[in-house]
C-alpha cells in the first residue's frame, strides 16, 4: 500500500509554524503522508515533533501554515474535530484516567454518548481481532504499562481512524512487546490506515517505516526512505553533526566492592507501588553498573531505598564501603560518600523556583561545608554553584537564576555536576539523559565514565538500552521488583535483556547472594 | 486558500523565571485596585469616597496618640502573621491563629489569676513564656493529628478556634470571674507586675510591640540564613526535593505549627496584659484571621509582614474613625481586608505568568 | 405512641440542623470531584444566608429568596473561579480569602437587618398525611428545601455515576492533563462545578436564615461551612455518605441543644464544643487510613491547571 506517489495524500502539512516565547518550536514544516503509509517523524528531544503532532490532533493551533486532509484544507480547532475527521492519537504520556475502568476511559476518548454495554462488546471484539487483549472492567491503575498503551490504541481503533499518530510508543515496551505492536501497525497499514510514527530510535524506524521526515531544532531537514539509509546516516541527519561516542574505559574488574546490597525487600508504601523482592547486587570501584527495565517495575522504590528516602528495616541490607547504611537517612549516607541524581530533575533533584545557589546548597551543604555555625555561608555557597556552572558547562546567565529557568539538559548537567563535585565514592544516577539533548547527553556520559575511572562506583538506572550498552560494564534487569544477576556487557544480548524485562523469563536466575559474591 | 489563525485572544504564558519586579509590585497594584473598588463601595453606601478614604487612611494618624494606636493594633497582627507565614511557606495551612492566640492569653493569664498577689518582676516574663507555651500546645494538637493521623490541619486548627473561644467563655463565666465585678464576665484587672510596660508614656504602646519587632528580625534571619529556614522553604516548594535532601516533612510540620502557636500565644497574652488589662470574653476582634491577610500581603516575608501589619491595623482604626465620623458600618473594614487579599491573589498571576495578546492573522498561501 | 412524643420534635430539629450541611456538602462534593478545592464554603454560605434573608424580608417571596441565595453563592464561587481557574491562584489561599471576604461582605450587607424577624419557611401540610402520627410530620411535614436537599443528593449521585457528563466531570478531577489532551474544556467544566458548589452553599446558608433560625446574625454559620468540608472527607467523596454525615452532625448539634435545655449538669460551653470536637475526631479517624483517602480523593484536587502545550 505504501508509496503510491501519484494519489492524493491522506494528510499534507504546508509551512506549519508555531512559536513559543523564546523558541520557534515549528518553523515552516512540510509533511505528506499517503494512505496506508507508515511515516516516521524523526528527531531529537526538542526537535519539534510533539508540537507538530499536537497541531495535527488539534491540541495546539499553528500560528501559520495549512493542513490538507484528503485533498481539502481543514482547520482542526480541537481533538474532537480531529477524531471526527478520522485522526487518532496514542500519546507518549498516556491520556488515561487511573481511577477509572478501561471502558470508562475509552468512552471518554469518544465523542457523543455511548451505551456502555455495547461499548464493552466492541472493545472485546476490536481488541481481540488486533491481538490487543483487554478486560473492559479492570481499573486502569491495576494494568501494566503495555496494557495501558493497548487501551489508547483500542480507543483509536474503535473510531476507525484514517490516520493514527503514535508518539514514542515503544519507549515503555520491552523489545518483544514492541515487535508485537509493529505487527498490529503493519496490519493497519495493510488496511489502508496511515500511521505517523514518532521516534528517535533508528533501528525500529528502519524496520517499520516506509518514509521518514526528519526534524531538527524545529526545522524541516529532509524526507527519506529509511530502509535505504543506515542508522548512522539517519543519526547524522537527526543530530546534525558527527556524534562522538563516549570513550569507554577498561573494565576494572579488580576494584573493591563499594556498594553491596543483600536481600533488599521493601513493601511499597503507596498504592500502586511495586514491592521489592530480595534484591542483591554489588557495585565495584571503577565500574558502571547498569540496571535496565521498563518503568514501573520497582525502579522508584529501589532508588528511594538506596538514597535513604526510604529507610530499610535492616542496616546490613545496604553496605557502603563495608559500613551498614540501611537505616540511615539521605544525609548521613551522603556524608559517607553516597551521591544520588534522581530521575525527576524539577521537583526532586532540584527545587524549581529556587536559585541555583540554593539548589547547590540543597544536597551539598554538609559535604561541601556550606554551613557556618548554623548559618548559611552565602559566599562559599555561591562559589560552589559557580564551580558547578563552570566545570560542567551549564548554560545560564548566572547562578542567581532559578532551576526552572534552565533547559532540561543544562539543569541535568547542573545536578550531575553538583553531585560529582562532592567527590562521591558511589554515585547513583536515574535516567541520566532522559529528555536531554544529544550534546548534553554525551557530556553526562563522559562525566560518569570519568568518575568511575577515578575510582568511584557508578550505578545507572535507565530505560534506554542504547545508553546502558554505551556506558555500562555490567547490566542487570529489574522486573516486577526483582533484579536479575548482573552480567558483563559482552556476555549479554539485547534479546536476552528484552526477555528479562518481560519479567516472566529468566527469573530462575534471580541473583542470590551466593551468585554475586 | 486561506487558513484562519486563532481568534484574538488574551493568552497567559508561563514565564521562564518568576518576575522579581512583580513580587514587589503586585502588593501595590492590589492596594491600588482595592482603593479603586472601595471608591465604588463607598459611593454605593452613599458616602463621599474622598471623605471616606480620608477618614480611613489619614484621619487615624492625626495625633501622636493615634499614631501609637497603630502599633498597638499592629502588634498582635504582626506576631500572628509572622508565625503563620513560616507555616504557609512550608505549605502548612494553620488557620487557627485566633485559637492559639486565645489559648496563649488563657494559659499566660492563669499565672496572675491564681497568684494575683505576686509582685515579682518575674511574673510578667513567666506569663509571656506560659502564653507562648499555651499557644504552642494548642497548635501542637493539629500538628500531632497531621503527622500521626494525616488529618487536614486546615480543618482541625480552625475547629480548635471555636473550642478555644468556648473554653475562654467557660472560664470567664465561671471560676475566673472577678467576685467584685458585679457579675460581669470579666477577670480581676491585672496588677502592674502582670501588665506589659508602656513604652511611651501617654500612649498604650507596650512591650509587646518590641516583641513583635524582635519576631520580625528573628524570622527574617531564620528564613534567609539558617538551615531550618531553608528546610521550611524547600519542603513548601518541592517536598520531594526536601526528602531528597534528607529534610523531614513531619519535623517541619511540627516546627512551623509550634512556632506559629508560640507567637500567637504571645500575641494573645500581650493583648490581655497590655491594652485590655484583664481577661474578657472577647480578646481579639479576629486578629488571628486578619493575620492570614497580613501574611499574604506581606508576601510571607517578615519585613513585608511588618508593613502589611501596620496597613491592616490602619484599616481597623480607619473603620472606627469612619464609623464615628461618617456613620459607616464597621463591617466595611472586613470587606476592605477581604478585597485586599482577593486582589493580591489575582495579581499574583503576574509573578509567574505574563499576558500576551494573540492577534488573529490571515495566512494566504501561494 | 404517646411515650415517644418527644422523639418527633428531636428528629424534626435534627433534620433542620442537617439540611444546611447537606446542601453545602453536596455542592462542595461536585466542586471537589472536578479537582477543585474551594475552602470558601463558609463565606459563600454567609453571603447566601444574608442575600436570602434580605430578599425574603423585602419581597416576602421565599422562592425568590432561595434563588437569590443560590445566585449570590454562585457569584462568590465565580470570583473564586476567576482567581483559581483563570488566574491560577493558589486554591487554599483563595478559599481562605473567599471566606474572609464573605464574612465581611455579609456583615456589611446585613448590618441594617440584624435582629429583624421574619416568618420561618413554611412547612408542607397535606391534610391527612401530615397529621399521621410520627411519620406524618417527619415525612410529609417538612419545608420544601428539605425535600430539595434529598433530591439534590440523588441527582448528584445519578449525574456523577450514570451519565457521560458525570464521567467527564470525574475525569477532569482525576487527570486534567489527560482530559485536556483528549479535548475536554477543563477550565469551563471546573467553572460549572465550582459555581454549582457556590449555589448549593448559598442555599445551605439561606436555610439557616430562612428556616433554622429565621433571622440574620453576623457569622451565623458558626463554622458549618468548615464542617461541610470535613464531611466530604468523612464521606470519602461519596454523595450518599455526605447525607449520612450531615445527619450525624445534625444529630450531635441537636443533642447538645437538648442536653442544655434539659438542664444537664454540664456547662453549656462544653456541650457547644461537641460538634467541633466531633469534627476533629471524625477527621482523625477517617484520615488515619491514608491509602483509603488517596484512593477516593480526586487525584487532581487543589492542583493548578495550566494548559502549557
Automatic annotation (TrEMBL), chain A:
The keyword Nucleotide-binding applies. It comes from the Bacteria. Keywords: ATP-binding, Nucleotide-binding. Transmembrane segments: none annotated. Signal peptide: none annotated. Residues 11-242, 259-505 form the ABC transporter domain. GO terms for molecular function: ATP binding. It holds the Pfam family ABC_tran. SMART domains: AAA. This is ABC transporter ATP-binding protein. The lineage of its organism: Bacteria, Pseudomonadati, Pseudomonadota, Alphaproteobacteria, Sneathiellales.
TrEMBL record, chain C:
It is found in: Cell membrane. Keywords: Cell membrane, Membrane, Transmembrane, Transmembrane helix. The chain crosses the membrane at residues 6-24, 36-56, 62-85, 92-114, 134-161, 182-210, 266-286. The keyword Ion transport does not apply. The keyword Endoplasmic reticulum does not apply. InterPro entries: ABC_transp_permease. It is a multi-pass membrane protein. It holds the Pfam family BPD_transp_2. This is ABC transporter permease.
Amino acid at each position: 500500500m505504501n508509496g503510491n506517489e501519484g494519489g492524493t495524500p491522506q494528510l499534507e502539512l504546508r509551512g506549519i509554524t508555531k512559536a513559543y516565547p523564546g523558541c520557534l518550536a515549528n518553523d515552516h514544516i512540510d509533511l505528506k503522508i499517503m494512505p496506508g503509509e507508515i511515516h516516521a517523524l524523526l528527531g531529537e528531544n526538542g526537535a519539534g515533533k510533539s508540537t507538530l503532532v499536537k497541531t495535527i490532533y488539534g491540541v495546539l493551533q499553528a500560528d501559520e501554515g495549512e493542513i490538507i486532509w484528503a485533498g481539502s484544507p481543514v482547520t482542526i480547532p480541537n481533538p474532537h474535530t480531529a477524531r471526527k475527521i478520522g485522526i487518532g492519537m496514542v500519546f507518549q504520556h498516556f491520556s488515561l484516567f487511573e481511577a477509572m475502568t478501561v471502558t470508562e476511559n475509552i468512552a471518554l476518548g469518544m465523542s457523543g454518548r455511548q451505551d456502555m454495554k455495547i461499548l464493552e462488546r466492541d472493545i472485546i471484539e476490536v481488541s481481540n481481532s488486533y491481538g490487543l487483549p483487554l478486560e473492559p472492567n479492570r481499573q486502569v491503575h491495576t494494568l501494566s504499562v503495555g496494557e495501558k498503551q493497548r487501551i489508547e490504541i483500542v480507543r483509536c481503533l474503535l473510531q476507525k481512524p484514517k490516520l493514527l499518530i503514535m508518539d514514542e510508543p515503544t519507549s515503555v515496551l520491552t523489545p518483544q512487546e514492541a515487535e508485537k505492536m509493529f505487527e498490529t501497525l503493519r496490519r493497519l497499514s495493510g488496511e489502508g490506515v496511515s500511521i505517523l510514527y514518532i521516534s528517535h530510535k533508528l533501528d525500529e524506524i528502519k524496520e517499520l517505516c516506509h518514509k521518514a521526515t526528519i526534524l531538527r531544532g524545529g526545522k524541516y531537514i529532509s524526507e527519506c526512505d529509511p530502509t535505504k539509509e543506515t542508522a548512522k546516516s539517519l543519526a547524522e541527519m537527526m543530530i546534525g553533526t558527527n556524534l562522538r561516542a563516549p570513550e569507554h574505559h577498561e573494565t576494572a574488574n579488580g576494584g573493591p566492592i563499594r556498594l553491596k546490597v543483600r536481600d533488599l525487600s521493601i513493601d511499597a508504601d503507596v498504592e500502586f507501588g511495586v514491592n521489592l523482592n530480595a534484591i542483591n547486587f554489588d557495585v565495584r570501584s571503577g565500574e558502571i553498573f547498569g540496571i535496565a527495565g521498563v518503568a514501573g517495575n520497582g525502579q522508584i522504590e529501589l532508588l528511594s531505598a538506596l538514597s535513604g528516602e526510604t529507610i530499610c528495616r535492616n542496616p546490613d541490607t545496604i553496605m557502603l564501603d563495608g559500613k551498614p547504611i540501611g537505616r540511615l537517612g539521605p544525609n548521613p549516607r551522603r556524608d559517607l560518600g553516597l551521591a544520588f541524581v534522581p530521575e525527576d530533575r524539577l521537583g526532586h533533584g532540584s527545587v524549581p523556583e529556587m536559585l541555583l545557589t540554593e539548589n547547590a546548597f540543597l544536597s551539598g551543604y554538609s559535604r561541601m561545608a556550606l554551613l557556618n555555625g548554623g548559618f548559611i555561608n552565602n559566599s562559599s555557597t555561591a562559589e560552589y554553584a559557580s564551580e558547578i556552572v563552570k566545570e560542567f558547562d551549564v548554560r545560564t546567565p548566572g547562578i542567581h537564576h532559578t532551576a526552572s529557568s534552565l533547559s532540561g539538559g543544562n539543569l541535568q548537567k547542573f545536578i550531575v555536576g553538583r553531585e560529582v563535585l562532592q567527590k562521591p565514592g558511589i554515585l547513583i544516577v536515574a535516567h541520566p539523559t532522559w529528555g536531554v539533548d544529544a550534546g548534553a547527553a554525551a557530556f553526562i556520559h563522559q562525566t560518569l565514565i570519568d568518575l568511575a575511572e577515578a575510582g568511584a562506583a557508578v550505578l545507572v538506572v535507565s530505560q534506554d538500552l542504547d545508553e546502558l550498552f554505551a556506558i555500562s560494564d555490567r547490566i542487570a534487569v529489574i522486573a516486577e521488583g526483582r533484579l536479575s544477576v548482573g552480567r558483563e556487557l559482552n556476555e549479554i544480548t539485547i534479546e536476552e535483556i528484552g526477555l528479562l524485562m518481560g519479567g516472566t523469563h529468566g527469573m530462575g536466575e534471580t541473583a542470590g547472594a551466593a551468585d554475586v559474591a | 486558500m486561506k487558513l484562519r489563525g486563532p481568534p484574538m485572544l488574551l493568552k497567559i504564558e508561563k514565564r521562564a523565571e518568576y518576575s522579581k519586579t512583580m513580587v514587589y509590585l503586585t502588593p501595590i497594584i492590589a492596594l491600588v485596585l482595592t482603593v479603586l473598588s472601595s471608591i465604588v463601595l463607598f459611593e454605593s453606601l452613599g458616602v463621599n469616597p474622598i471623605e471616606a478614604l480620608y477618614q480611613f487612611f489619614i484621619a487615624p494618624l492625626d495625633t501622636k496618640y493615634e499614631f501609637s494606636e497603630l502599633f498597638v493594633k499592629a502588634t498582635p497582627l504582626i506576631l500572628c502573621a509572622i508565625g503563620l507565614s513560616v507555616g504557609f511557606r512550608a505549605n502548612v495551612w494553620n488557620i487557627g491563629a485566633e485559637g492559639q492566640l486565645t489559648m496563649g492569653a488563657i494559659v499566660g493569664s492563669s499565672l496572675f489569676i491564681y497568684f494575683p498577689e505576686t509582685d515579682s518582676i518575674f511574673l510578667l516574663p513567666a506569663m509571656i513564656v506560659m502564653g507562648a507555651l499555651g499557644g504552642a500546645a494548642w497548635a501542637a494538637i493539629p500538628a500531632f493529628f497531621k503527622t500521626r493521623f494525616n488529618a487536614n490541619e486546615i480543618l482541625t486548627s480552625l475547629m480548635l478556634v471555636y473550642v478555644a473561644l468556648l473554653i475562654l467563655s467557660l472560664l470567664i463565666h465561671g471560676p475566673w470571674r472577678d467576685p467584685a465585678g458585679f457579675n460581669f464576665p470579666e477577670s480581676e484587672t491585672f496588677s502592674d507586675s502582670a501588665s506589659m510596660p508602656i513604652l511611651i508614656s501617654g500612649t498604650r504602646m507596650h512591650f509587646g510591640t518590641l516583641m513583635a519587632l524582635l519576631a520580625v528580625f528573628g524570622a527574617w534571619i531564620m528564613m534567609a540564613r539558617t538551615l531550618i529556614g531553608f528546610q521550611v522553604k524547600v519542603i513548601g516548594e518541592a517536598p520531594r526535593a526536601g526528602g531528597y535532601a534528607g529534610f523531614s516533612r513531619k519535623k517541619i510540620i511540627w516546627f512551623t505549627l509550634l512556632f506559629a502557636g508560640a507567637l500567637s500565644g504571645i500575641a494573645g497574652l500581650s493583648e490581655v496584659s497590655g491594652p485590655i488589662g484583664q481577661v474578657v470574653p472577647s480578646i481579639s476582634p479576629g486578629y488571628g484571621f486578619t493575620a492570614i491577610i497580613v501574611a499574604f500581603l506581606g508576601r510571607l516575608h517578615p519585613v513585608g509582614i511588618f508593613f502589611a501589619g501596620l496597613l491592616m491595623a490602619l484599616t481597623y482604626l480607619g473603620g472606627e474613625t469612619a464609623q464615628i465620623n461618617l456613620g459607616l458600618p464597621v463591617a466595611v473594614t472586613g470587606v476592605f481586608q477581604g478585597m485586599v487579599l482577593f486582589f493580591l491573589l489575582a495579581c499574583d498571576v503576574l509573578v509567574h505568568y505574563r499576558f500576551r495578546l494573540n492577534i488573529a492573522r490571515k495566512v494566504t498561501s501561494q | 405512641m404517646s411515650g415517644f412524643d418527644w422523639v418527633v420534635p428531636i428528629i424534626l430539629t435534627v433534620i433542620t440542623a442537617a439540611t444546611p450541611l447537606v446542601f453545602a456538602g453536596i455542592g462542595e462534593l461536585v466542586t471537589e470531584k472536578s479537582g477543585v478545592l474551594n475552602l470558601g464554603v463558609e463565606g459563600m454560605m454567609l453571603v447566601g444566608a444574608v442575600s436570602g434573608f434580605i430578599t425574603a424580608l423585602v419581597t416576602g417571596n421565599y422562592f425568590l429568596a432561595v434563588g437569590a441565595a443560590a445566585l449570590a453563592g454562585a457569584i462568590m464561587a465565580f470570583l473564586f473561579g476567576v482567581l483559581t481557574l483563570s488566574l491560577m491562584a493558589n486554591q487554599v489561599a483563595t478559599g481562605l480569602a473567599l471566606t474572609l471576604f464573605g464574612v465581611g461582605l455579609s456583615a456589611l450587607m446585613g448590618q441594617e437587618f440584624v435582629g429583624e424577624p421574619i416568618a420561618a419557611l413554611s412547612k408542607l401540610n397535606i391534610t391527612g398525611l401530615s397529621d399521621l402520627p410520627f411519620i406524618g410530620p417527619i415525612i410529609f411535614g417538612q419545608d420544601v428545601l428539605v425535600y430539595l436537599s434529598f433530591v439534590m443528593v440523588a441527582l448528584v449521585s445519578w449525574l456523577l455515576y450514570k451519565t457521560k457528563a458525570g464521567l467527564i466531570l470525574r475525569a477532569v478531577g482525576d487527570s486534567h492533563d489527560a482530559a485536556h489532551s483528549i479535548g475536554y474544556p477543563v477550565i469551563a467544566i471546573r467553572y460549572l462545578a465550582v459555581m454549582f458548589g457556590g449555589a448549593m452553599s448559598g442555599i445551605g446558608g439561606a436555610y439557616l436564615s430562612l428556616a433554622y433560625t429565621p433571622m440574620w446574625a453576623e457569622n451565623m454559620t458558626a463554622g458549618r461551612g468548615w464542617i461541610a468540608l470535613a464531611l466530604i472527607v468523612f464521606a470519602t467523596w461519596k454523595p450518599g455518605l455526605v447525607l449520612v454525615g450531615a445527619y450525624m452532625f445534625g444529630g450531635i448539634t441537636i443533642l447538645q441543644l437538648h442536653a442544655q435545655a434539659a438542664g444537664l449538669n454540664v456547662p453549656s460551653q462544653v456541650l457547644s464544643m461537641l460538634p467541633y470536637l466531633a469534627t476533629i475526631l471524625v477527621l482523625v479517624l477517617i484520615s488515619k487510613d491514608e491509602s483509603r483517602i488517596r484512593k477516593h480523593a480526586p487525584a487532581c484536587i487543589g492542583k493548578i491547571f495550566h494548559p502549557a502545550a
